[in-house]
Every structure is written in C-alpha cells, then in structure tokens.
Design a protein that fits this description.
The structure is a single chain. This protein is of the alpha/beta class and 378 residues long. The protein is built from 13 helices and ten strands. It has helices at residues 40-44, 51-72, 94-111, 120-126, 149-155, 192-202, 209-222, 246-260, 267-296, 311-318, 320-323, 334-337, 342-354; strands spanning 2-7, 12-21, 28-38, 84-90, 115-119, 160-165, 170-177, 180-186, 300-304, 328-330. The protein is globular. The chain binds 5'-O-[(R)-(carboxyoxy)(hydroxy)phosphoryl]adenosine (KG4) and zinc ion. Residues 10, 166-168, 193, 196-197, 208-211, 214, 305-307, 309-310, 338-339 line the site of 5'-O-[(R)-(carboxyoxy)(hydroxy)phosphoryl]adenosine (KG4).
C-alpha cells in the first residue's frame, strides 16, 4: 500500500510517501520520498509557536514539499500511484491542522484517492516501528536483515505501556492492542517539552529550549560542575500516574531570584540548573513509568515524542532493560522523535490494517480537532 502522509499540527510542515506492507504482525515501511520544513527560525523571535505564522508557512511550504516528495518517489504529480492520503487531524493548533486537512482533501479529490485522518499521538507511538533513515532509500528497497520492522513489531507485546513526551503532551498510555489506547495518566498543567522551553527562557536560552538545556546539562555532567541547585520532584509520591511540571518551572524561577537576584547567571550556574532540572524531570517520569509498568504487567515500553530526543532521558529509559530483564524498551530514532510525516504514515497503516474497509467507504468530512485524545476516535 502506498501512502502519502501530511503533517501540519505545529511548526513542522512535512510530507512523505511510504510503501507499507506486512499488516499488523509484520509491518514494513519503505520510504519512497520524505520532506520536512522546520519553521523554528520564524517562531524563534517570539519565543514560541505563533499559530498564524505557522498557518501561513504551512500554506506556503506544502505544495513545495509535495512536489519534492513525489519527485523523490519518481511519481507524476498529476496522477501519482498513491492508494491513500493520510493527514493529521489533531491534536495540535487548529489553524495549522486545517491547512493540512484542506490540502489533503483537495489532493484526494483531484487524484480520486481516499483521505483518512490520523491522530498525531498515535503517530508518535507508531514512530518506533520506523527504522533508521539511512536505511531508507528508493534504490535500497531491500529490507536489512538486522533489526527489521518485522522483528521490532514482533517484539512488541501487549498490553504495552507508552510514555508520550512532547511540546504539548505528557501522557502514560496503556496500549491494549494496536489501535486500543487508554490514557492512564497525564500532566495537570505544562507538558514536559513546554517545561523545557520555559526553563530555557528563564536561563536566557533561545527557542526551542529542549535541545539547548540538554546541551548545557551534558556539559555540567562531563565537566563535573559542582551541584548547587536543588529542585523538587513534583508529584513523585502522588500514587497516581499524573504529572505536574508547572511548579518545577516556578521552582527554577524562585531559585534564580533567591540566589542571584538581578545578577546575570554565569554559564556554570546555567549548566548546574539545567542538569538539576533535567534530573528532576527524568526522576519523576521514571518513577511513574516504572510504577505503571508493574501495575499493568507490561513487558513493552514505548517512549515517543520530541522530548525523547533528550540524551539523558533516552539513556535512563533504555537502561531500564538492565534492571527489568523481561522488559523491551522501544524509542524512535532521533530523526523520528520530533514531528515528521513518516510517523503519520505508520499510524495510518496500522489503522488501515485494523480497518481495511475504510479505504472503500465514501469520503468522510475531516475536521481539525485541537484537543483530540487517544482512545476517543480520530
Ligand atoms: O513532538 P514534538 O516535535 O512536537 C510536539 O508535538 O509538541 O516535540 C517538541 C518538543 C519541544 O518542546 C522541544 O523543546 C522538545 O520537544 N525537545 C527536547 C529535545 N529536543 C526537542 N526536549 C529536551 N531535550 C531535547 N534534546
Ligand atoms: Zn508531536
């Protein structure tokens, strides 16, 4: 099945063309074309994503990325050999989501191809099925023997637990089977990525703050900078699976105010705070996740979303396999961790493998759902 997928939920415009086969038990994804344009530079000066700028940039870039993707796939733009178009319908910024949906529906009409909506968070979950990008290429459609999609899919045992950590979400999700998701815990205020971005701003680092914090925290660790800053681990003993990161950001604000007043922070102070902030986040995520793993009896842990690009978080969770010997931890590659269109194609393929009849159903109207939740339809 050839899938054209479109992602415009936030500040990444992305289009990919994927050939998927093997069904639910042996999914294979071969990338025929893949393009992504990150709008970070446009939003940087505002310190966060501006919905109207995101909308304008998606409108400008989608036709360009489509052309590039189809040309990489060796397909004719007037009548490409696509079986289905998959588009993110939520969650995300509604003005941005609408651009992708309208574009997808227009293409569907022009080409006579069905369009299906995809939940962005299911895209993050299924992103762990995608292999390293350098193994994808049109001229290399043979699948490598090592670590194939099939082997990865077969190692996923249900019920699985998914920890989703992105700029807009922090969720623990019980995955009963592919397509059956129950959110068992979530943040009560800020998402982890949002907390990274806000703390970065307090430290005078540019947007998006996640990678910046990560970089200086790493410096504090490798250079053994003295540990001075101490921050709380919010809700770590709350005996539920919910999180709260807004208080942690405020604790950083007070720490800076109480210890430095109006004196500018040195690079060493910033690195110390960044390391402690990262440690606090990782401690809380780890504690809640291991509790949930035990309660559910899950032997598969999927961690996805942009924040899993964070080295400390990734290494800590991957090390869980050593202490929990019957556990397999799945993370996407760094490239597939942050928003992209390949993950939308992988989720679409899982959904279509579960419900193949959707390909023949009359075209449904697709609407943008900014607050779409996993487990509540698409
Ligand atoms: O999943 P994603 O690309 O977009 C959303 O769906 O939100 O996640 C973006 C978030 C941003 O908050 C960004 O700061 C964070 O992921 N992020 C990181 C790192 N790379 C990206 N956070 C911590 N460490 C990183 N290395
Ligand atoms: Zn995302």
């Amino acid at each position: 099945m050839k899938i054209l997928s479109i992602e415009t939920s936030c500040d990444e415009t992305a289009v990919s063309c994927v050939e998927a086969k093997g069904g639910l038990t042996e999914p294979h994804f071969a990338v025929l074309g893949n393009s992504l344009f990150s709008q970070i530079d446009m939003h940087k000066e505002f310190g966060g994503v501006v919905p109207n700028i995101a909308k304008r940039e998606h409108e400008k870039n989608l036709p360009i990325l489509l052309q590039k993707t189809l040309s990489e796939a060796g397909m004719d733009e007037e009548k490409p050999t696509i079986d289905v178009i998959a588009v993110t319908s939520g969650p995300g910024l509604e003005p941005a989501l609408w651009v992708g949906i309208t574009f997808a529906l227009d293409l569907g009409k022009k080409w006579g191809v069905p369009v299906i909506p995809v939940n962005h968070m299911e895209g993050h979950i299924t992103s762990v099925l995608l292999r390293k990008p350098d193994e994808f290429s049109v001229s290399n459609l043979q699948f490598s023997k090592k670590n194939t999609d099939t082997e990865r899919a077969q190692k996923i045992q249900f019920p699985a637990l998914a920890l989703l950590v992105s700029g807009g979400h922090t969720e623990l999700v019980k995955v009963e089977q592919w397509g059956q998701y129950t959110i068992i815990g979530q943040t009560r205020d800020d998402a982890v990525g949002e907390a990274f971005d806000k703390v970065a701003r307090l430290l005078g680092l540019p947007y998006p703050g996640g990678p910046q914090i990560s970089k200086i925290a790493e410096k504090a660790r490798t250079e053994h900078i003295e540990k001075t800053c101490v921050l709380p681990r919010p809700m770590i003993h709350s005996h539920d699976y919910d999180f709260s990161f807004s208080g942690l950001k405020t604790a950083v604000l007070y720490y800076i105010r109480d210890h430095f007043g109006t004196t500018p922070l040195s690079e060493t102070d910033k690195a110390d705070i960044a390391r402690e902030f990262e440690d606090a986040v990782v401690d809380v995520l780890l504690s809640k996740t291991t509790e949930a793993l035990d309660d559910i009896g899950a032997r598969t842990l999927i961690i996805a979303g942009g924040v899993i690009a964070n080295k400390k978080l990734r290494e800590t969770f991957e090390a869980l396999e050593q202490t929990h010997t019957d556990l397999t931890v799945f993370t996407p590659t760094r490239e597939h961790a942050t928003d992209n269109a390949l993950m939308i194609a992988s989720a679409a393929y899982i959904e279509l493998s579960l419900h193949p009849e959707r390909l023949d159903a009359p075209q449904q109207n697709i609407i943008a759902q900014g607050n779409l939740k996993l487990g509540h339809g698409v």
